[in-house]
């Protein structure tokens, strides 16, 4: 076992030492990665699984509650939670029982089940929109919302916010580069210029939003209530009220994607803050890890959708797959909505998040760091800047990839997992205070170690 670092001279030295420690302490994961490399591109079934800061993928053995054990027998406090699908904990008993029971009776029929009626009622009661559809992922749900918005309005353009994340929806892969719209540089195989039909503006910039809506050709604004994928960015006071007013004045639909902000409360950010979307999208957590998503619409929009469908006539709509709304997903969603995503569960999550926020802010203050802590509900972000940026362009300027890599690797080697893509931490109802305190202590030790090296 390799001990703690002995005063590395630079951040690169610190990262190198942490990599060596990881490789020494994870021989089985390293061996499995070598074997997997012969059958899986990049050594993992899905390339995101290789995006962690560690030099070799961690192979999981099991997850129980808010902890994961890997194949080397190492135990981790899990603050990633599958990057949201397992937000309420791994191996949740009521979901496991519902899924096992349904699997024995058939996983999918391309027919509705009795659970579908109950799930629809639970969704309407919880989120306030009366009519729903199911999808397999939030990406699929967002694609459906965009397609319907264009059909209903007869308009070609979708508007997104710079730095947004809406899954693998091509229309959302547009960013601002030097103030001008451009396709994300990492987008593979794109043959059409997405900037022709996607408009992008900075988050929190109401003047830019109003100007972008002014031509009258925007079918829908697709928005996260809080920006969560480029480093967490909170909305300015009054931003959402103005967003709703401006979209209504422009005849533009508002699609709110709550796939990440469902951490806010039982009804998501929408219910907690009184938002009034035309379309509400939710994925990942709604089925407890079983691939599923839902999207709901207002009664008014549903009527317009019927009119659009009648104009177009019968045929393939380009929306949905045979797996959408399958019996297994419905069973999982029923268990989640009725037994897991409860007020009491959220109360525990929010209390744990408040403890984490207070602990991290205590580290920042005690160590005199130019860092900040941002959170929405049970989702917490450590930002290497103070004050926290208000838009993605400002966030990109302060993003220190080396420091992020070092922090993630440091935490992994001390038995803590956070989301691999940025400094996001998610608290579940079964995350105990001791786990929160261990995470805070590990960040504090990292702050000390980084303070002793040359960056």
From TrEMBL:
<dbReference type="InterPro" id="IPR005814">
    <property type="entry name" value="Aminotrans_3"/>
</dbReference>
<dbReference type="InterPro" id="IPR015421">
    <property type="entry name" value="PyrdxlP-dep_Trfase_major"/>
</dbReference>
<keyword id="KW-0663">Pyridoxal phosphate</keyword>
<keyword id="KW-0808">Transferase</keyword>
<protein>
    <submittedName>
        <fullName>Aspartate aminotransferase family protein</fullName>
    </submittedName>
</protein>
<dbReference type="Pfam" id="PF00202">
    <property type="entry name" value="Aminotran_3"/>
</dbReference>
<dbReference type="GO" id="GO:0030170">
    <property type="term" value="F:pyridoxal phosphate binding"/>
</dbReference>
<dbReference type="InterPro" id="IPR015424">
    <property type="entry name" value="PyrdxlP-dep_Trfase"/>
</dbReference>
<comment type="similarity">
    <text>Belongs to the class-III pyridoxal-phosphate-dependent aminotransferase family.</text>
</comment>
<dbReference type="GO" id="GO:0008483">
    <property type="term" value="F:transaminase activity"/>
</dbReference>
<keyword id="KW-0032">Aminotransferase</keyword>
<dbReference type="InterPro" id="IPR015422">
    <property type="entry name" value="PyrdxlP-dep_Trfase_small"/>
</dbReference>
